[in-house]
């Protein structure tokens, strides 16, 4: 029987949230020096002991602190974050979560811009040469095959976030995009909308396909016909949302509701509706995806799918730190896939379709 993990005590005797090297040593039944040797990959540790220590580290979700690493002469862990996201609201929330978790884990976070199609492989190679211990790839870089192949070939531990198709060679943090989009579409149909327009996200991102398929599944579930005129492409940008909404509302039989694949495109759809003199949600329901800060800074506030962006970035840092510690201890990459929960959040932008009185028939 292994020992039950316990929360570490602070100097005042109260339990704190962060485990220490001593807690790992106690759980594993070894000395703190042995734990430090395992963390730093020293050879003077028996395989059985190394496995026991790594198991204790995983159980406690322990991230080595600076004092423990300096005890064995190790340097501070450095992890990289490459970003290229057109949504400033999404990126801001992701960076805040990453920085907070990096601070808690006592690791250095190196952040670098990496625009897709603009020497992204060279940027990834530069990040590798800088000596980072691992890399986090939020969207859209989570689906960049060139960047992924570069990192994998270099043997750099990598965590992808919000991809619709996690590679086998990396760890991943996602939500169920298919079921989330299906839930939102069902919600709109349940309100009485028989014609639900859908704005697809960037075709280069696998999550776009998952959300599109979720929408189609809900349409089929309800026995509604699949109408190609109700589906238009977008790029996850506000401007692409403007063009997409115009196309949907210019149709001969326009939708009574628009479900956009992110909040930026949904906000653009609201702007187009207002420009045309349409009331949201009286004349047109508009819903988004992500629940970024933008969702509550426009009027009316957006009904949307809450994707826990900050929590996903925190989980990515935690996964990467654990993977690096495990590798330093001689273990093989586990490449765990963590799926977090989504939530459908109702606000002021959705309603039942307006019922118009029937046309009068002249005698």
Automatic annotation (TrEMBL):
SMART domains: HTH_LACI (SM00354). Gene3D superfamilies: 3.40.50.2300, lambda repressor-like DNA-binding domains. InterPro entries: HTH_LacI (IPR000843), LacI/GalR-like_sensor (IPR046335), Lambda_DNA-bd_dom_sf (IPR010982), Peripla_BP_I (IPR028082). GO terms for molecular function: DNA-binding transcription factor activity; transcription cis-regulatory region binding. Transmembrane segments: none annotated. It comes from Sphingomonas taxi. SUPFAM superfamilies: lambda repressor-like DNA-binding domains, Periplasmic binding protein-like I. Residues 19-73 form the HTH lacI-type domain. It comes from the Bacteria. Keywords: DNA-binding, Transcription, Transcription regulation. PROSITE patterns: HTH_LACI_1, HTH_LACI_2. It holds the Pfam family LacI. This is LacI family transcriptional regulator.
């Amino acid at each position: 029987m292994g020992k039950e993990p316990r929360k570490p005590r602070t100097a005042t005797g109260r339990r704190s949230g962060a485990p220490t090297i001593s807690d790992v040593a106690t759980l594993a039944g070894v000395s703190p020096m042995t734990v430090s040797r395992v963390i730093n990959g020293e050879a003077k540790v028996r395989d059985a002991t190394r496995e026991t220590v790594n198991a204790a580290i995983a159980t406690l979700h322990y991230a080595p602190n600076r004092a423990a690493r300096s005890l064995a002469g190790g340097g501070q862990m450095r992890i990289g974050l490459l970003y290229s996201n057109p949504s400033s609201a999404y990126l801001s929330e992701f960076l805040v979560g990453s920085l907070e978790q990096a601070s808690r884990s006592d690791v250095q976070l190196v952040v670098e811009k990496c625009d897709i199609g603009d020497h992204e492989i060279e940027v990834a190679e530069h990040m590798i040469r800088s000596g980072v211990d691992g890399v986090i790839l939020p969207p859209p870089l989570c689906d960049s095959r060139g960047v992924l192949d570069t990192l994998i070939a270099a043997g750099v531990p990598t965590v992808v976030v919000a991809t619709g198709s996690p590679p086998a060679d990396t760890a991943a943090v996602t939500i169920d995009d298919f079921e989330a989009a299906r839930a939102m579409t069902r919600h709109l149909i349940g309100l009485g909308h028989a014609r639900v327009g859908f704005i697809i996200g960037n075709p280069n991102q696998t999550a776009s396909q998952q959300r599109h398929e979720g929408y189609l599944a809900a349409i089929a579930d309800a026995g509604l016909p699949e109408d190609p005129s109700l589906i238009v492409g977008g790029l996850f940008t506000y401007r692409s949302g403007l063009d997409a909404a115009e196309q949907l509302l210019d149709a001969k039989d326009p939708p009574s509701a628009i479900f956009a694949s992110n909040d930026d495109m949904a906000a653009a759809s609201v702007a187009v509706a207002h420009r045309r003199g349409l009331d949201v949600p009286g004349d047109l329901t508009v819903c988004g995806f992500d629940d970024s800060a933008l969702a509550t800074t426009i009027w009316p506030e957006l009904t949307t799918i809450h994707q826990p962006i900050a929590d996903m970035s925190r989980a990515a840092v935690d996964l990467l730190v654990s993977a690096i510690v495990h590798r330093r201890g001689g273990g093989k990459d586990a490449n765990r896939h963590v799926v977090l929960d989504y939530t459908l959040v109702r606000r002021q932008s959705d309603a039942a379709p307006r019922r118009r009185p029937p046309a009068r028939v002249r005698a």
